[in-house]
Write a structure and sequence with these properties.
about 475 residues, alpha/beta, nine-stranded mixed sheet, 9 strands
Length: about 475
C-alpha cells in the first residue's frame, strides 16, 4: 500500500502533459500485451488442399456411395500360406542374444509352428467381421473402415469418434477397446469409425507419389463428412497421432476434441534449456519427478535407444520398395518384421528375453491376425511407402509444423513409449490441453495392450470437454 501511495503522489506531482504521456504509454503497452495474447489464442488452420491418388487420370465425377464390405478367405489362400511357411529357411540365433539382434529365430520357430498347425484364419476372419465393414471412394481410392454404433438406450449422449491406427498396426488394434467405448460410460457413449490408412490393409494403396499424413487427414475428414458428422472426436497413436493432429489443424471447427497416446517431437530453445536445467532443478522448467525419471539420462533414452530401434524407419523412409521385397513374399519374414515391433515397442526390456515378452501382453491369435491383414492384402510395401512420403523433406518445414493445435486436446503419456514428451513441452504446440495423464503402465500399442487404461483416460478427457 505504501508503494502504491508513493507512485500515486509521484504521478500527481507531474504536470498535465507528462501525466497524459504516461497514461498513453501504459495504455499502449497494455494494448500490445493484449494483442500478443489474442494472437496466441487465435485459432489458426492449415490449408485443406486437394489430391487424386487413383490410377490414371482423374475422372469428371467420382462415386461417393458407401458400400458394405466383408473380409473373406479361401482354402486356396490358406494352402498357399502353409506351403510358403513350409519352405522357410532359418538362421540360428547367437547364444543368449534375446531380441537384441531382432526377432530370435528359436522363438520364431515356435510362433510359426503355432501359425502353421493351430492358428485358425477362418475363425479369425469371423472375428474381423464381428463389426460392420464398409468401403467408399475418396480421391480415387477405395477407403476401408469399420463403423460401430452403440446399442440404443435412453438418456445417453452418443458422440462420434474416429480412431486412427499406425504402423505396423491396423484397424484390428482397436478391437479390444471398441466394446469399452460403445458401452455407456456415465451417460457418455461413442459411435466409432476406424478407417484403414490408404495403403494399409483393406484400403487401396495410392497409385501416385506424395500421399502423406496431410493427404490422409483430408481423406478422413471427407469420410466423416460423408457419414454425416459435422463435429466429432479423434484419437490416435503412431501415424494416427500425426494424421488426427493434421485433421484438427485443417478443420478445427469440426473437431470437438483430439486425444493422443503418442506425442510428436518438439524442439526449440525452451526444450534445450529444460534439458540443461531439468535434471537438477526440474520445477524451474515444469518437469515432474516422473518426467525426470522418463527423460534422463537423456542421451541413453532419447538418442541411443531411438537409434537402436529406428533402423526400419531409415530404410522405409528412403527405399521402401526394396525393404518390402523379401517380406512381401515370405510370410515368416513378414511376421518377424512386424512382431518384433510388438515386442520392443511394448517394453524395451523385452529385448533381454528369448521370447521377446510377446505373449505377456498379447495372444498369438491376435498378433497373427494383424500379420494376416498385411499378408492377405499384400500391403506391407505400400504401408512402408507412407514413411517415404512423409520424410521426403524436413517435416519441420511443413505447414503443419509451423501452426499450433487449438482444439481441446487430451494426452496419455505411456511410460514405455519410445519418446517421452512432458506437459511443459507439449503445451508449446498444443494450445488447449484439457488433460495430460502420466499413465501407470503400457507402451506404444496402447489400445491393443492397455485398452481399459486408454478408454478410461479418453472418457475422462471427453467429460471435461463436454463438461459432464
Amino acid at each position: 500500500m505504501q508503494r502504491l501511495q508513493v507512485l500515486k503522489e509521484a504521478f500527481l506531482g507531474l504536470d498535465a502533459v507528462h501525466q497524459r504521456l504516461l497514461i498513453g504509454t501504459a495504455v499502449a503497452a497494455g494494448g500490445a500485451l493484449a494483442y500478443i495474447v489474442h494472437k496466441r489464442r487465435e485459432v489458426k488452420s492449415i490449408p485443406l488442399g486437394e489430391g487424386w491418388w487413383g490410377a490414371g487420370e482423374k475422372p469428371l465425377s467420382e462415386d461417393d456411395k458407401i458400400y458394405t464390405f466383408e473380409v473373406q478367405t479361401s482354402d486356396e489362400d490358406i494352402k498357399d500360406l502353409h506351403e510358403r511357411i513350409d519352405r522357410t529357411r532359418y538362421t540360428d540365433p547367437l547364444e543368449d542374444s534375446g531380441f537384441h539382434y531382432g526377432f530370435n529365430s528359436t522363438y520364431l520357430k515356435k510362433v510359426v509352428s503355432y501359425w502353421r498347425h493351430q492358428f485358425d484364419w477362418k475363425k479369425q476372419v469371423a472375428v474381423l467381421n464381428k463389426y460392420p465393414h464398409f468401403k467408399t471412394k475418396i480421391e480415387g481410392l477405395d477407403v476401408h473402415f469399420i463403423h460401430v454404433r452403440p446399442p440404443h438406450r435412453e438418456n445417453q449422449t452418443v458422440l462420434p469418434l474416429m480412431l486412427v491406427h499406425g504402423w505396423p498396426g491396423s484397424f484390428f488394434e482397436f478391437y479390444r477397446i471398441l466394446p469399452l467405448l460403445t458401452e455407456n460410460q456415465d451417460g457418455v457413449v461413442f459411435e466409432v469409425i476406424c478407417p484403414s490408412i490408404p495403403g494399409y490393409g483393406f484400403s487401396e494403396a495410392p497409385h501416385k507419389q506424395g500421399f502423406d499424413s496431410l493427404a490422409a487427414a483430408r481423406v478422413f475428414l471427407t469420410l466423416m463428412e460423408r457419414l454425416g458428422f459435422s463435429q466429432f472426436y479423434l484419437q490416435g497413436g503412431d501415424w494416427g497421432s500425426l494424421i488426427t493432429t493434421n485433421m484438427a489443424q485443417m478443420k478445427p471447427q469440426c473437431v470437438k476434441g483430439l486425444h493422443l497416446n503418442m506425442l510428436g517431437h518438439v524442439n526449440g530453445f525452451k526444450v534445450l534449456l529444460s534439458l540443461l536445467i531439468g535434471p537438477y532443478l526440474p520445477f524451474l522448467v515444469g518437469f515432474s519427478k516422473e518426467d525426470v525419471r522418463r527423460l534422463f539420462p537423456f542421451f541413453e533414452k532419447n538418442v541411443w535407444d531411438i537409434l537402436r530401434e529406428t533402423g526400419y524407419l531409415h530404410i522405409q523412409g528412403t527405399k521402401p520398395d526394396t525393404a518390402g521385397c523379401g517380406v512381401n513374399d515370405s510370410p515368416v519374414g513378414l511376421a518377424a518384421y512386424i512382431l518384433e515391433k510388438f515386442s520392443t515397442w511394448t517394453n524395451l526390456m523385452n529385448r533381454d528375453l528369448a521370447d521377446g515378452g510377446l505373449e505377456r501382453k498379447f495372444s498369438l491369435d491376435d498378433l497373427l491376425t494383424n500379420v494376416m491383414i498385411y499378408w492377405t492384402t499384400g500391403s506391407i510395401v505400400s504401408s512402408m511407402r507412407f514413411y517415404k512420403e512423409n520424410l521426403k523433406s524436413n517435416i519441420e518445414n511443413r505447414v503443419d509444423s509451423r501452426v499450433g493445435i487449438f482444439v481441446p486436446t487430451g494426452m496419455a503419456a505411456f511410460p514405455a513409449e519410445l519418446m517421452h514428451v512432458p506437459h511443459s513441452w507439449a503445451k508449446t504446440r498444443f494450445r488447449n490441453i484439457y488433460s495430460y495423464t502420466l499413465m501407470p503402465q503400457g507402451g506404444h500399442f496402447a489400445a491393443f495392450e492397455e485398452p481399459q487404461l486408454l478408454a478410461n483416460d479418453f472418457v475422462q478427457f471427453v467429460k471435461k470437454v463436454e463438461k459432464f
